[in-house]
Amino acid sequence: MVEVAHAVRAYWLIAALWIRASMAYPLSFWTMTVGGVLITFLDFVAIWLMFSHLDSYGGFTLREIGLLYGVTSISFRLADMLVGSVEKIGQKVRSGDLDAMMTKPVPVLAQLCADRFELRRLGQIAQSVAVFGWAAPIVEWNPQRLAVLAMALVSGVVIYFCVFVAFSTIQFWTTDASEFANAFTYGGNTIMQYPMTIFPLEVVRSLTYLLPLTFVNWYPCLFLLGLHDPFGAPGWFRFASPLAALVLVGVTTLVWRQGLRRYRSTGS
Amino acid sequence: MSLIEVRDLSREFTIRKRVGVVRRTSVVKRAVHDLSFEIDAGEMVGYIGPNGAGKSTTIKMLTGILVPSGGSAIVAGLEPARQRRELARRIGVVFGQRTSLWWDLPLRDSFELLRRIYRIPDQTFQRNLDDHVALLDLGDLMDTPVRQLSLGQRMRGDIAAALLHDPEILYLDEPTIGLDVISKGRLREFLRALNHERGTTLMLTTHDLQDIEALCDRVIVIDHGTAVFDGPLSSLRLNGDASRTLVVDLVDEAPAISVEGAQVVKVEGPRQWLSFPAGASAAPLVAQVAAAYDVADLSIHEPAIEDVIRTLYGG
């Protein structure tokens, strides 16, 4: 725990510096932020257009898909803003920056994640929040549902954080694997924007047991909408997001340690 | 106990090579092999050797970046590989060819961030900032983003940054690479002062042997991962086949001078070059020559370290 506290402190020290630096040019900051909103807005417009030909997709209405979209995108884009820089491990190895990080008295992972922290990504998060806000009225909110939503969002950020770190760590073995990591991070988020009912069972199973992204939005949203899993997954899965996040944190810790160990015995 | 103690330190790398479509063979490369040395507090040591000799690998093990595959290293009473972050507070590292400053941020911000990362007490920070910024002439550059600094300015910024937390040891990897003569001179002067006034232990790897001449009392020469020489600069010259040269300007042209203990290697008009062993004294030789010939002028040339080291690598 002390270790985590150290890491978080170091992370915010570095991130705060980058935030201050980006604020030095307010015009550029706001243009980029608003640009982020517009670009990601088009993302949802694509789904919207699809619905001009359909009434429902995979048994879900546009607003229901908006709910799925909102929950996964808020989590994903928060994680991307907070730790997305970690995908530059390969570059940091090649440039020698990683060596410099290793001679500083704070955790390397915190330094990697906080490097070039981009507050302007808040623009993309704003778009996700807007889509969620538009879809939210279809849920009959009560305290349990609010609690499950909060749990899902926190777990979602943690799950995507793990996906970013674990798949970026592969670059310790092959330094050019950043595209590979993107397939699982950005690709994962894109898949989760759709209802699982449009995918074959094997895909849904993989996204539950291998790479547990369904716990980010699918199972919790089923609960929010008062639905049962069409694939017959156990009912408690709808509350299991924190458990999935915890397991993933464990696996990611192992992968990260192994990756760093490899670097420290090859130096390249 | 010495500040840095290295015992039979080794680091092997396994390099996998592809042969054919799927078959691979692996070759074990010994980057550092059974290396031993000790460095006491306050020393200034030059760590030199040809490319690929194992210099960087050694420094990476002494800073805790790389884990040794054999032997041990103790730095400031700590085991670098296991206590890397604790050690980081006690050492400063400057890599000549890259910066550990934040590229897009002004020096001032980088220094401020380091103050917080290292938890440097305000008083220490202010004193070091005042001292180093003045001595390294960084005053006007504090608000310039690092990427806009020249190589020499950036290097000075990097050195100031590495010293903010009062490290006991400063590792410098090629600190003067790419710098002009004046910048090199000023940097050497600063490092000498740092060592004299604060007692900071310096270990530097370099290809510039003038760095060594100007700074280091002691030289460790490494080749193929092992130390081939460890001692004071003066005895490095005695080592190997090095020889000194006595240049004699005679009043008139004359046939080759014949004296005991030296050999004429070149004659050019009235000027003659006599080679004699680096370990021998020049005094009797000069006396002999002066007694037997009409001498207009005399000078003694020390062997160039480059040549000395070349003979070491050769052997």
From TrEMBL, chain A:
Which InterPro entries does UniProt cross-reference here? ABC-2_transporter-like
Q: Does the keyword Iron apply?
A: no
Task: Please report the name of this protein according to its UniProt entry.
Answer: Transporter
Q: Does the keyword Translocase apply?
A: no
Q: Which UniProt keywords apply?
A: Membrane, Transmembrane, Transmembrane helix
Task: Supply the Pfam families for this chain.
Answer: ABC2_membrane_6
- Where do the TM regions start and end? 27-51, 146-167, 239-256
